[in-house]
Amino acid sequence: MFSKRSFKIISVAILALIAIVVAGFFLPEQLMIPVRGATPADWNHNSFWFKPWGKSGVHRGIDIFAPEGRDVISACSGIVVYTNTIENGGKVVSVLGSKWRVHYYAHLKQISTVAGRFVSRGEKIGTVGTTGNAVGKPAHLHYAIITQIPYPWLYRSERFGIDRMSYLNPHELLMKGR
Ligand SMILES: [Zn+2]
């Protein structure tokens, strides 16, 4: 069994883990519009959860329209947890920010960050493009916010309603305090 000493180390580790999780909830979060120079006029305010929406059935984010090549900037400080080229999203970047929320940026022309890097709010992470299923469409940034700890009160008894617990409305969060 565990010795007294290893038990103490485990207890400290668990307390530290709890402290990190709790701190994640209380870090202040003021989001920036993640395209340089963009304003709320550059996205449809009702496009979050718009359906039907292509192959994915329902839209789970907002599309911020901007000229191709415009800087995509991180909406918040955080850690880049994922960059890749995928079928629908094209070139994508995911940043883990405060409150255990992942900020997802898709259809990038170029990715200019790497997984594991800390980014500050407003830092460039790529450029606006038309990659993935945005090929042939006007250039835009698909921006989604996914909470890693689902919110059961957002559940809806409809198709894709379970996803409502994880996907937050970027429009509402970007408009906060405006
Ligand atoms: Zn989109």
Please write out the topology.
Blueprint: H1 4-26, E1 62-65, E2 71-73, E3 78-86, E4 90-96, E5 101-111, E6 118-119, E7 124-128, E8 140-147, E9 167-168, H2 170-175
Antiparallel strand pairs: 1-8, 2-7, 3-4, 3-6, 4-5, 5-7, 5-8, 8-9
Bound molecules: zinc ion.
Protein described:
It comes from Geomonas propionica. The protein has a single domain, classed as Glucose Permease (Domain IIA) (Distorted Sandwich). 16% of the residues lie in helices and 29% in strands. The protein has two helices and nine strands, in the order H-E-E-E-E-E-E-E-E-E-H. A hairpin with a 3-residue loop joins strand 3 and strand 4. It is globular. The protein starts with a helix and ends with a helix. Zinc ion (ZN) binds next to loops.
- Helix-and-strand structural type: alpha+beta
CATH superfamily: Glucose Permease (Domain IIA)
By CATH, the architecture is named Distorted Sandwich
Strand composition percent:
25-35%
Main sheet attributes: strand count, strand direction, barrel closure: 9 strands, antiparallel
Shape: globular
Extract low-pLDDT stretches.
Answer: none
| DSSP summary: helix tally | 2
Count of separate structural domains: 1
Q: Under the CATH scheme, which class?
A: Mainly Beta
Pfam family, one: Peptidase_M23
Keywords: Membrane, Transmembrane, Transmembrane helix
Protein name: M23 family metallopeptidase
Transmembrane segments: 7-27
